[in-house]
Amino acid sequence: MSDTVTLNNPVAASTDAPALLIEHARKDYGRAAGGRRDAVADVSLNVSRGAIHGLLGPNGAGKTTTLKMLLGLVKPSGGRFEILGLDARKPGARARVGFLPEQPYFPQQLTASEAMALYGRLAGLSRSEIAEQTGDLLERVGLEGRQKTILAKFSRGMLQRLGLAQALLGQPEVLVLDEPASGLDPIGQRDVRNLMVSLKEGGATILLSSHQLSEVETISDEVTILHQGRVAARGHIDDLLNVSGQTSLRVLGVGDLPAEVAAVVCDIAISGATTVFSLPDEHVRRVIEQLYDGGWKIVSLQPKRASLEDYFAALLVAAEKNKPNDTASKGGSDE
Amino acid sequence: MNKIAAIAQAVVADAVRRKVVWVVVVFAGLLAVAIPALPSYGVGIIDGVYKQVAIALMWVAAIVVALSLAATRLPVEIERRTVFNIIARDVRRWQYVVGTWLGMFLTLGVVLLAFAVATIGIGWFTYGHPMFLLFEAAFATWLEIGIVMAFTVMLSTLFGAVTSVVGGLTIAFVGHAAVSFLHLPETTRAPIWFPSLDTFNVINSVALGNGISLAYLIAMIVLFVGYVGLFMVIGSYMFAGRDL
């Protein structure tokens, strides 16, 4: 990463430094003789202040291990980690960070209020601040009226919501969210997305880790895609996943597509009265006119985007072809 | 210090609501009620026998509660990732280990206080006079089992619940076996290097004597602080190097 800030005075540097900086993070398990396994081989990240940065990758890509190294839960084998310009290992560095782990659990016999009081005190809040913020945050995540409920009675989704609430205690400048929509129903997932957008508007920086493209694509300013413990690509999600020269069309109608249309489209998927397909950009105008003439209704029109699964499959193919090379990348790793 | 206190307070709130703690206390209390039915009760030293059995029950109840809490707390918190929400904040790992032990130690204090009050009440009701010296025995038991707890927590920073329970039981057993292990005469004190817990055995002083002196009480506290401090330092060091 070329835009690394060298920090001599952490207090002064903290105003200019990126919100999160990870350089050449590495974590291996086991001994060399016994077959060393790299959970994270070489990951670098630079998250600007006030941005939502998506960290994408399939299961086992190294997302969670990278976050754990940043937050002191796992000892790195190598690399540099900074939070708001401070060495992440130093006392105080994590004071302005809120963290939601994947599938969070809490002491089961505590009430929601008691759990919030615990995390509030650990965040350095006074009793009055904790009382004030607990009510607001529980309401914000949809747990109003649950303050006195024992956590053993909470559902999976409610624990996830409580995890979000505790991460927001103390109004942290940086939020690290690991699979925040995990365990939530569609409405809950939408609420979480809206919450993240409003937090960003309030000036917070969010590092959002997920293996679900849908969780990240609509709100992230930038994404980093990890694959097999390395950065496979980084940039805006449209630049990474949009398929050049192709448009995706969703239409409503009954019966087969007109023959002239069927001749130029591909990747056709039909569900009930909805048909989704893609076609070359140059045919879009003509196909739309033909569909209108045939009584079809156009539901959406957007650049064709590869699914994350397709993207990873392409990465695997590229990696096989370029076996001696370490990084198979569309955007290219900039380490 | 505030962070240690916050963690300890949460541990107490969580632990005192666990059924296992109060099942043990109630069971031990029922046994205390049954003490007058013991065969050896006819030897004449009624108070002494009652107090001896009550102290033994107190010790057994305390060790069951202590091991059930101390051996499982850290392994379960690590397995369920409860610990993530704490360590990812600006909390040092030693603060988490010490706070967790302190919370369980305070819970044990509540349990022992409740049991001591119950046995004193039963004794008062049965014999017509209070046996307040049982508070001294409860305090000595609290300190001793607090050490066993610290050792168990130390083990649980690296090992699972079963290993930690076995370790805790071992230190409790070895701590009272210096005479047997080292073939010492009955009245001899264990050498300084031996992890003896005999100092906390006040059963004779409380059951058959006039209790313990202030100097003895201070000696117990000093020994307690030394052992717990040692185990907490080692446990914190072991936990600091562990990936979660």
Explained architecture:
The complex is a heterodimer of chains A (335) and B (244). Chain A is α/β, with parallel strands linked by helices. Chain A has 2 domains: 10-235, Rossmann fold; 245-308, ACT domain (Alpha-Beta Plaits, 2-Layer Sandwich), CATH 3.30.70. Chain A is built from 11 helices and 14 strands. In chain A, the strands form 3 sheets. Chain A has a 6-stranded mixed sheet, sandwiched between helices. In chain A, helix 3 (112-122) crosses helix 4 (127-140), helix 3 (112-122) runs parallel beside helix 5 (156-168) and helix 4 (127-140) crosses helix 5. In chain A, 44% of the residues are buried. Helices cover 72% and strands 0% of the residues of chain B. Chain B is mainly α and 244 residues long. Chain B contains 10 helices and no strands. Chain B has helices at residues 2-15, 19-33, 46-79, 84-87, 93-127, 133-156, 161-174, 178-181, 203-207, 214-240. Chain B is globular. In chain B, helix 3 packs parallel to helix 6 and helix 5 (93-127) packs antiparallel against helix 6. Chain B has one domain. Chains A and B meet through helix 3 of A and helix 1 and helix 4 of B.
